[in-house]
Every structure is written in C-alpha cells, then in structure tokens.
TrEMBL record:
<dbReference type="Pfam" id="PF06156">
    <property type="entry name" value="YabA"/>
</dbReference>
<feature type="coiled-coil region">
    <location>
        <begin position="3"/>
        <end position="44"/>
    </location>
</feature>
<feature type="region of interest" description="Disordered">
    <location>
        <begin position="49"/>
        <end position="82"/>
    </location>
</feature>
<protein>
    <recommendedName>
        <fullName>Initiation-control protein YabA</fullName>
    </recommendedName>
</protein>
<keyword id="KW-0175">Coiled coil</keyword>
<dbReference type="InterPro" id="IPR010377">
    <property type="entry name" value="YabA"/>
</dbReference>
<keyword id="KW-0862">Zinc</keyword>
<dbReference type="GO" id="GO:0006260">
    <property type="term" value="P:DNA replication"/>
</dbReference>
<feature type="compositionally biased region" description="Polar residues">
    <location>
        <begin position="57"/>
        <end position="66"/>
    </location>
</feature>
<dbReference type="GO" id="GO:0046872">
    <property type="term" value="F:metal ion binding"/>
</dbReference>
<keyword id="KW-0236">DNA replication inhibitor</keyword>
<keyword id="KW-0479">Metal-binding</keyword>
<dbReference type="GO" id="GO:0008156">
    <property type="term" value="P:negative regulation of DNA replication"/>
</dbReference>
<keyword id="KW-0963">Cytoplasm</keyword>
<keyword id="KW-0235">DNA replication</keyword>
Length: 128
C-alpha cells in the first residue's frame, strides 16, 4: 500500500470511529432519558397504588395499615415511612430524590447531602 492509500485508510477509519462515538453518545443519552422516565413512572405508579390502598382502607376501617412501620420489623429496621422507603429505594438505584436534581442520575453514585436530608432528615419531628 502506498503512503497516500495508507493515509486515506487512516482518515476513513478515524471518521468511522467518530461516527460510532457519536452514535454511542446518542444511544447513551436515550438510555438515560428512558431510565429517568421509567423511574418517574414507577414513582407515579407507586403513588397511585398507595392512594388506591388508602381509598380502599377508608372504605373498610378494619383493614387500615399504618404508614409508619414499627422498628421491630426486620424488613424496616430504620423506622422510615413507606414514602421515605420508596425514596430510599430510588436513591439507592442511583437517582436524585432532592428538589434540586430530582430524577437525574447521580454521577458515579456519589452521595448527595440534599437527597440524604430528604430521606433521613426531620425523623424526630412529630408526624401529622
């Protein structure tokens, strides 16, 4: 292969690599958007389920379930409410639950003080 042909081949491979990198970046962005939408829909679905449960429990007062799970429950040693447990699960899946970055993916699963405050803050206050 002559020098010009080799140079043209290298340029062609470089252009193909750039195109593939652009395609990969586009796919990555789409996956991120779909993941955020998925979590938003899961949260909405959970909210609607909780609301349906509360509506059904109001109709039959014998089957009311308290929002606060007792700390003796081995599934919930932290004593968080159901809504805070849901937020904790979303946070552990790598998404922000704070009002500043809600629904955005946490970079490298780094901790967020705002999210932790939303989940674990003000637990000693009396709940209405």
């Amino acid at each position: 292969m002559d020098k010009k042909g080799l140079y043209d081949t290298i340029l062609n491979l470089e252009n193909q690599a750039k195109d593939l990198a652009d395609q990969l970046a586009g796919i990555k962005e789409e996956v991120s958007e779909m993941t955020q939408e998925n979590h938003t829909l899961r949260m909405e679905n959970q909210y609607l389920r909780d609301r349906l449960d509360s509506e059904l429990s109001q109709k039959s007062p014998d089957s009311q379930v308290p929002d606060q799970v007792p700390p003796a429950d081995p599934n919930n040693p932290s004593g968080l409410t159901k809504s805070r447990l849901n937020l904790e699960n979303i946070y552990e899946d790598g998404f922000h639950v704070c009002n500043l970055f809600f629904g955005k993916r946490r970079e490298g699963d780094s901790p967020c003080a705002f999210c932790l405050e939303v989940i674990y803050g003000d637990r000693d206050q009396k709940q209405d």
